[in-house]
């Protein structure tokens, strides 16, 4: 048997992995008393902890002195457009229109559901955006919604509207495979909390939308989910199927999750409107945990107002998710934006920004509100990524230690298997210090939003993608324009940040969407939604549809 005795040379080698340096005397002092520390770690690994076991420590985005908004209530628009003759026009309609047609009797939930099921059958073989289609269940739920309406009962603005849910949310008796080979036959015994809430709101479940394996990228055990505007490239991730299906008109809306860009990145790629709510607003009970202090649940839609209606159905604290926070949600589709102050980071619109980014900022300045330059403290925001790596590696430790990580399709340098293995060498002391840095970042963003009501910027604005995900601030990402680009490479976390991929300009180019982000104060999603509505109308690009295979 190989000698397992720790030597001073072992310690010296380990120092290089940690970026520290000890003296020969210090190594000699510790070499004889590391066994207990190692034994404790080994003993802990002997305790089986399923993905459902949370961390004892809970992240709360509220700093001392925070005051919860008091306004409450979601008020939608009341469109009067007649029901179109063409099924595609119905499929791409906004939620207020779909709801109005269903409530008036011009459109039945069954017909709408069948329209989406037919489109899924036609287009899913090209897009790989649905992992499981629950056609019989969807039609049964649609019939139940039609029967309720016939009796005079309407469950709300989502009554009878079909949706897709990311395949990391449990659905009773329906495969929930997390996009990953080790779990592709996993069948849960109960529904996730949000599935229950959406059923109570009258929404109709079409099936499970795809995600990159274990909530990263767009590669899953069934293939690679595609961008409807260019099916030669991936949809980005990890809520790849939700964005792809929504952009392609295969559902009324969809549900995604975000740890670091997993709602906003596929929305950037596929041209959808994604709303990442404040951390703690929506329950994650029954969802796969990737990072307990970072995971967030939100809607992916084709328009700004739609996201408000869906979030309203999801909003609320849940005892089954220890991180949820009871908070009111206020949004009025008719409310103006007069008197608001919008900030932007100048560097975000400098070198590296696109003409679409600058046009979006110019459009914001034409909305009649004050638009001002702001700044953030000089902090190592990117260093926070090691928190994500550590939590994710802990969530799926058993894959690393059992070598089941080898069964995942994506094995690149930036893929989860390599990231999980590297995370074993992260320092626990550094992890505590990172938590303290996170507090400084919370103070930095809190200070920024003392100056402005919202911030506008490109998807990769300075440190905002990382910073706001770690502080829990909400983000709305909406379509801003179109560019002519080549097929883009997959996203990567391997360099310490997420990217939406570099475009290959050497081959055929495609007309693809690009978006702009709005960030807001904690639990004040209504503000960025109202600004987003105004910007959406000004830019006038939300209605364009992808050209899809016949």
General description of the model:
The protein is α/β, with parallel strands linked by helices and 550 residues long. The chain has one domain (86-381, 429-539): Amidase signature (AS) domain (Amidase signature (AS) enzymes), CATH 3.90.1300. It has 18 helices and 17 strands. The protein has helices at 8-18, 24-30, 35-45, 87-91, 95-104, 109-127, 135-150, 193-200, 240-247, 264-270, 304-314, 355-365, 385-395, 397-402, 416-423, 428-451, 464-471, 525-539; strands at residues 73-75, 130-133, 162-166, 204-209, 219-220, 223-224, 226-227, 230-234, 253-258, 273-276, 296-301, 330-332, 341-344, 370-373, 454-457, 475-486, 509-520. Strands 2-4-3-9-11-10-16-17-15-13-14 form an eleven-stranded mixed β-sheet, sandwiched between helices. The chain has a two-stranded parallel sheet with strand order 1-12. It has a two-stranded antiparallel sheet with strand order 5-6. Strand 5 and strand 6 form a beta hairpin. It starts with 7 loop residues before the first helix and ends in an 11-residue tail after the last helix.
């Amino acid at each position: 048997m190989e000698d397992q005795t720790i030597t001073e040379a072992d310690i010296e080698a380990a120092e290089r992995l940690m970026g520290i340096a000890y003296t020969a005397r210090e190594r000699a002092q510790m070499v004889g008393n590391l066994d207990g520390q190692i034994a404790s770690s080994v003993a802990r690994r002997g305790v089986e902890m399923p993905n459902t076991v949370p961390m004892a420590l809970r992240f709360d985005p509220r700093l001392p002195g925070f005051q919860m908004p008091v306004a409450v209530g979601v008020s939608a628009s009341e469109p009067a457009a007649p029901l179109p003759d063409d099924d595609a026009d119905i499929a791409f309609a906004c939620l207020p229109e779909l709801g109005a047609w269903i409530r008036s009797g011009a459109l039945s939930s069954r017909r709408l559901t069948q329209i989406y099921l037919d489109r899924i059958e036609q287009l899913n073989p090209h897009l790989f955006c649905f992992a499981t289609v629950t056609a019989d269940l969807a039609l049964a739920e649609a019939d139940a919604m039609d029967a309720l309406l016939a009796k005079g009962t309407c469950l709300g603005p989502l009554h009878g509207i079909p949706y897709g849910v990311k395949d990391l949310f449990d659905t009773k008796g329906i495969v929930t495979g997390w996009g990953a080979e080790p779990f592709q036959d996993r069948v849960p015994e109960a529904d996730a909390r949000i599935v229950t809430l959406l059923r109570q709101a009258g929404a109709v479940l079409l099936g499970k939308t795809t995600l990159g394996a274990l909530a990263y990228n767009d590669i899953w055990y069934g293939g690679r989910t595609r961008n409807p505007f260019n099916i030669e490239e991936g949809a980005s991730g990890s809520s790849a199927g939700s964005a792809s299906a929504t952009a392609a008109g295969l559902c009324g809306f969809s549900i995604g999750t975000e740890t670091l860009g997993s709602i906003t990145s596929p929305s950037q790629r596929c041209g959808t409107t994604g709303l990442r709510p404040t951390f703690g607003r929506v329950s994650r009970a029954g969802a796969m945990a990737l990072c307990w202090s970072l995971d967030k649940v939100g809607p992916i839609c084709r328009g700004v107002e739609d996201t408000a209606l869906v979030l309203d159905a999801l909003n609320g604290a849940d005892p089954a998710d220890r991180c949820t926070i009871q908070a009111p949600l206020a949004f009025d589709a008719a409310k103006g934006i007069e008197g608001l102050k919008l900030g932007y980071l100048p560097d975000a619109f400098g070198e590296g920004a696109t003409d679409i980014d600058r046009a979006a900022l110019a459009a914001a300045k034409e909305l009649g509100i004050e638009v001002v330059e702001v700044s953030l403290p000089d902090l190592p925001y990117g260093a926070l990524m090691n928190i994500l790596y550590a939590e994710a590696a802990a969530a799926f430790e058993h894959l690393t230690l059992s070598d089941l990580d080898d069964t995942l399709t994506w094995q690149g340098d930036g893929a989860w298997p390599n990231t999980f293995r590297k995370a074993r060498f992260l320092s626990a002391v550094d992890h505590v210090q990172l938590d303290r840095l996170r507090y400084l970042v919370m103070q930095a963003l809190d200070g920024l939003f003392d100056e402005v009501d919202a911030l506008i910027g490109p998807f990769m604005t300075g440190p905002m993608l990382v910073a706001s995900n770690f502080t829990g601030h909400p983000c709305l990402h909406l379509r801003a324009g179109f560019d002519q680009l080549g097929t883009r490479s997959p996203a990567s976390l391997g360099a310490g940040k997420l990217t939406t991929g570099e475009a290959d300009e050497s081959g055929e180019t495609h007309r693809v969407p690009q978006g702009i982000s709005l960030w807001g104060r904690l639990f004040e999603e209504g503000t960025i939604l109202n600004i987003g509505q105004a910007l959406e109308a000004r830019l006038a690009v939300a209605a364009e549809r992808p050209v899809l295979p016949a």
